[in-house]
Amino acid sequence: MKKVFAFVAMAAMFAACNTNTPVNPEEQKKEEFAKATFFEVIGTNKVPSESYTQDSVRAEAFVKEGNIVSINLYGVGFSSRMPLTIDMTIDSISSTRTADRIILSAETVIPTMGGKPFNRYPVVNLNGYISADSLVFTNNYGTYENCSFAGKIISMK
Fold this sequence. Notes:
By secondary structure, this protein is of the alpha+beta class. The protein has a single domain (about 35-155), classed as Beta Barrel (Porin), CATH 2.40.160. About 15% of the residues lie in helices and about 55% in strands. The chain has helices at about 1-15, 25-35, and strands at about 40-45, 50-65, 70-75, 85-95, 100-110, 110-115, 115, 125-130, 135-140, 145-155. The strands form two sheets. It has an eight-stranded antiparallel barrel. A two-stranded antiparallel ribbon has the order 6-7. The longest helix is centred in the first third of the chain and has 16 residues, at about 1-15. The radius of gyration is 23 Å and the shape is globular.
């Protein structure tokens, strides 16, 4: 009987010491976002002046030292008349980080294509944000005004 009682007492002690509390997915996502400096995104690029919408555009955003953000857009276009899509980088975007967003802004940035300046389409008046769920920004590309990108974060590190 003493052995049974000792076994039951031990089992109760181990059960009481179990600290595996369930993790709240929203809290875990917030913690992951607070540390993240890389975001992979799939989204939609819109160019209103051309009535052009392009779905499934892949993008990556990097938060660099000094709160500078760089966004890579892959296979992006500005018009249905564009014979090819391009890969471009919008660098030197200023950012401010809050608990739930990284606020983006840039007055004028010359994007790069293949590491070379892409002067034909300067990025002007970029404003937007990165959250744990999305990357959203608006800007002008050269003469293409009120362009937007809105995408869902598919991974962050």
